[in-house]
Design goal:
CATH topology: Cytochrome Bc1 Complex, Chain D, domain 2
Strand order of the largest sheet: 1-2
Bound molecules: heme C
Number of domains: 1
Oligomer: single chain
CATH class: Mainly Alpha
Helix content: 40-55%
Radius of gyration: 25 Å
Number of helices: 8
Strand content: under 5%
């Protein structure tokens, strides 16, 4: 066996390993939900939405994401933290400095210890992160029937169904199939693993009043909160996609130039 054949069989082995790894992960994921009385006979239809941040020209729908912030602030923030988000991040969505200061002032955060060593509350500043709803995980679990509402900063990236996850969970509530008993404090949700979730359906029509006058239907709030959470999960997406596009254009021009240069250099030989 020469070096070349050893390296090519090594390469083939690695590819095989990678493939079998992927397939077994898929198999595990597919088999995770065992058939039971609670298996939904029919899944609630979640509209296939085209999100503005998908594709190579992807960008955020700023107005929708700002409305989504209203939904987070008015509904989700009472249970879910958003640790990676600071008020000043709203500037990237076009909020003015005044608006950001105004929003931050609605909240209080612990100040640095005063001269007596006591920690008192102060009004939040644009540089502060959004305050957590519970002081610790035990308090969060105690308030939610033992379940901990996960931090939502990365939820759009953290689940296999990505930008479809939050809309699926929000739209997945339905009457359980016959024979499926749901304990007190749990809710049947066709898209949550195990089909029971400890979060009551959080969105009711007009749960928030949008500043821009958009009617706050459940559908509208679902789209808006997902746009906002996608932004929180990747605030630099617009920059990343624009840079990628510039690099591609540059590489295309460079390829043409190199090709012309090559033809020129080799002209006499050919
Ligand atoms: C009353 C408290 C409460 C409110 C309000 C609330 N949630 Fe939840 N949420 C929870 C709890 C508790 C869980 C964990 C459920 C479980 O583990 O069974 C959860 C779970 C979730 C999940 C599933 C997370 C996962 O692991 O995949 C999503 C998504 C979610 N919430 C989004 C939202 C959004 C968006 C809002 C605002 C529109 C919201 N929640 C409002 C309590 C709440």
């Amino acid at each position: 066996m020469n070096l070349k054949s050893i390296s090519s069989s090594l390469f083939a082995g690695i590819i095989l390993l990678a493939c079998s790894g992927t397939f077994s992960t898929i198999a595990v994921a597919a088999g995770a939900q065992k058939e039971s009385a609670c298996t939904p006979r029919e899944l609630p239809a979640i509209p296939e939405r085209k999100w503005s941040f998908q594709g190579i020209f992807g960008h955020y729908d700023h107005d929708s994401a700002l409305r989504g912030f209203e939904v987070y602030k008015g509904v989700c923030a009472s249970c879910h933290s958003l640790n990676l988000f600071a008020f000043r991040n709203l500037a990237a969505l076009g909020a003015t400095e005044e608006e950001i200061k105004g929003v931050a002032q609605e909240f209080e955060v612990p100040a640095a210890p005063n001269d007596d060593g006591e920690i008192v509350a102060r009004k939040a500043l644009p540089s502060d992160h959004f305050p957590k709803p519970y002081p610790n995980l035990k308090a969060a679990a105690a308030a939610n029937g033992g379940a901990i509402p996960p931090d939502l900063s990365l939820i759009v990236k953290a689940r296999a169904d990505l930008e479809a996850h939050v809309p699926k969970i929000l739209g997945g509530y339905m009457t359980p199939p016959a024979g499926c008993d749901i304990p007190e404090g749990r809710y049947y949700n066709a898209y949550f693993p195990g089909y029971q979730i400890s979060m009551a359906p959080p969105l009711l029509a007009d749960a928030v009043t949008y500043n821009d006058g958009t009617p706050a239907t459940v559908e509208q709030m679902t789209v808006d909160i997902n746009n906002f959470l996608a932004f929180v999960a990747e605030p630099k997406l617009e920059e990343r996609k624009q840079t990628g596009l510039k690099v591609l254009i540059f590489l295309i021009i460079l390829t043409v130039l190199l090709y012309l240069a090559k033809r020129e250099v080799w002209r006499k030989v050919h």
